[in-house]
């Protein structure tokens, strides 16, 4: 015979102190090197829990992350949660005070649909739209965590890094089979399409990451991506300065500068992405296939990576004083012969 697994008591049935203790176990946060905020959520709390403990969460967690320059939301260990908690996480990352319809949930037992919208107001502050957000996923990320990941990806608010998610269900119900000791676990709720987007969702197939990498390497990869994105403004600025100082087609420089200032780098997650995007844009605007950007890796020296100019130092040739040395130099530079047909 099979027995239904024992379930932990619902958070709403606990005292406020017990809820707080459970919540603290499921949420971890810190500020990493480079002023990158890190927030790990292992269980999405319900609306009831957030309404009771929202002040604590804002004061002890969120305010410490508000001053960071980018945020990593780690959902690699989040296998579920409460549907009612979705609007809270999305709303703190949704820019502005405009409400947005992010999903519609169908519940089979009640035969009802529920629209999920971002909140018009949040306790505390929203995370700035100018700051990058990365969501980490694994093959265990499931249910409500998948919906949050997919919504943020569809909104183009977050870069998803890690593994394809499990493709689970928003809500599961255990049903006893007749009078036996057997139980059937059935998905009873489903997403009808985040952001009102058709019938295809993440359920069954999972959420495909923007950058695929093994889950255990996802944080390291995310930090590398954020380092690159942090350098983007400086790269663009130096590129503009180089065009102004050196590009011979002077009449096209203003248009090129305007194009660079208005380029969308939201999808750039690697040096290859950046080089491809810059070259495609610059050559289209300038109509000059010679205008090229390339990435050059710094040279390794005995003391570590060489920092500074990527180009080798210019070598200025010197003319030797001795006649034989001068002849040897000439012969090393020039080769002279008469080909058949008296062709020099």
Question: How would you characterize the overall build of this protein?
Answer:
It is a single chain. The chain is of the alpha/beta class and 344 residues long. It is built from eight helices and twelve strands. It has a six-stranded mixed sheet with strand order 1-2-3-6-7-10, sandwiched between helices. It has a four-stranded antiparallel sheet with strand order 5-4-9-8. β1 and β2 form a beta hairpin. Mean pLDDT is 85; it is low at 1-9.
CATH class of one domain: Alpha Beta
Overall pLDDT metric: 85
Strand line-up of the largest beta sheet: 1-2-3-6-7-10
What fold name stands as the CATH topology of one domain? 2-enoyl-CoA Hydratase, Chain A, domain 1
Radius of gyration, in Å, reads 29 Å
The CATH architecture of one domain can be given as Alpha-Beta Complex
Helix percent reads: 25-40%
Number-wise, the strands total 12
Count helical runs.
8
Beta content comes to: 15-25%
- Structural class of the secondary structure composition? alpha/beta
Overall form = elongated
Q: Which sequence of SSEs, written as H and E, runs from N to C?
A: HEEHEHEEEHEEEEHHHEEH
Q: How widely separated are the two ends? A: 97 Å
Name of the CATH homologous superfamily of one domain: 2-enoyl-CoA Hydratase, Chain A, domain 1
Q: Low-confidence spans: pLDDT under 50, at least 5 residues?
A: 1-9
Largest beta-sheet characterization: 6 strands, mixed
Pfam families: Peptidase_S41, Peptidase_S41_N
Protein name: Interphotoreceptor retinoid binding protein
Keywords: Receptor
GO molecular function: retinol binding; serine-type peptidase activity
């Amino acid at each position: 015979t099979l027995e239904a697994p024992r379930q932990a008591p619902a958070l709403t049935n606990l005292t406020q102190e017990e809820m707080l203790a459970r919540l603290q176990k499921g949420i971890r946060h810190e500020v990493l090197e480079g002023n990158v905020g890190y927030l790990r959520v292992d269980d999405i709390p319900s609306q009831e829990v957030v309404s009771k403990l929202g002040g604590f969460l804002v004061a002890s967690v969120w305010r410490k992350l508000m001053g960071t320059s980018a945020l990593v939301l780690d959902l690699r260990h989040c296998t579920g949660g409460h549907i009612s908690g979705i609007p809270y996480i999305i709303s703190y990352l949704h820019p502005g005070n405009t409400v947005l319809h992010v999903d519609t949930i169908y519940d089979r037992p009640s035969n009802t649909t529920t629209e999920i919208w971002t909140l018009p107001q949040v306790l505390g502050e929203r995370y700035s739209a100018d700051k990058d957000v990365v969501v980490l996923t694994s093959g265990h990320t499931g249910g409500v965590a998948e919906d949050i990941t997919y919504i943020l990806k569809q909104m183009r608010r977050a870069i998803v890094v890690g593994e394809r998610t499990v493709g689970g269900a928003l809500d599961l119900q255990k049903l006893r089979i007749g009078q036996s000791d057997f139980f059937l676990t059935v998905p009873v709720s489903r997403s009808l399409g985040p952001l009102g987007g058709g019938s295809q969702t993440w359920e069954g197939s999972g959420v495909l990451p923007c950058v695929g990498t093994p889950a255990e390497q996802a944080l390291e990869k995310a930090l590398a991506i954020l380092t690159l994105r942090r350098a983007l403004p400086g790269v663009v600025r130096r590129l503009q300065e180089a065009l102004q100082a050196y590009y011979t087609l002077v009449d096209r420089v203003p248009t090129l500068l305007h194009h660079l200032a208005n380029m969308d780098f939201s999808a750039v997650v690697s040096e290859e992405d950046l080089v491809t995007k810059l070259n495609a844009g610059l050559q289209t605007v300038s109509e000059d296939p010679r205008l090229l950007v390339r990435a050059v890796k710094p040279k390794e020296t005995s003391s570590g990576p060489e920092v500074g100019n990527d180009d080798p130092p210019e070598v200025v040739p010197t003319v030797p004083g001795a006649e034989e040395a001068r002849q040897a130099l000439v012969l090393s530079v020039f080769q002279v012969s008469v080909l058949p047909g008296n062709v020099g």
